[in-house]
Design brief:
By secondary structure, the protein is an all-alpha fold. The protein has 4 helices and no strands.
Length: 193
Amino acid sequence: MNASPEKMLATFKTATEARVADLSAAGDSLMSAAEHLTALNLNTTRALLDDGIALSQALLAARDPKALVELQLGTVTPALQKSFAYAKTVGSVASQTQAELLKLVEAGMSQWLQGVIVTLEGLNRNAPMGSDFAVTALKTAVVNASSAYEGATQLVRQVSEVAQANVDQAAAATVDAVSKGTTATVSLFKTAA
């Protein structure tokens, strides 16, 4: 294959610029996720402080042990619901960032495979007689590897989506069960007194 130094340098420059753009996009994606998580943590901390102050005031205003127990039990379900919402938001930010990074990796992999195919075609044009079979075999191997990679990433996506749905259902069921349990306990205290 006859490749001039200018062509090789231009190819290298193009590939390097593409990788720099990919790294920049990945950095932007990670920075965006960090900003979202920082804002979420600040808002959650502010809400926890506000809830803590309100609970302290309510505890100081409670006049009998029954009211104190009811107040404490009444905070369990909202705290669990807020924890679930926080974890779900963190998971959402993480999965969105993962999806963006996976797209970048897939795009880079696709460009790399296209480069390999173009290189193989160039080899095929300049290859000696009788080497067509070897170049065709290499092209087939690249196409098969690309297909296997796409199948694997699709399977990982499906498994991740199913797992997330199962976690969401389990967490919702737990919040519901705790809510019912606390409601029953509060009712028991009210009827006991």
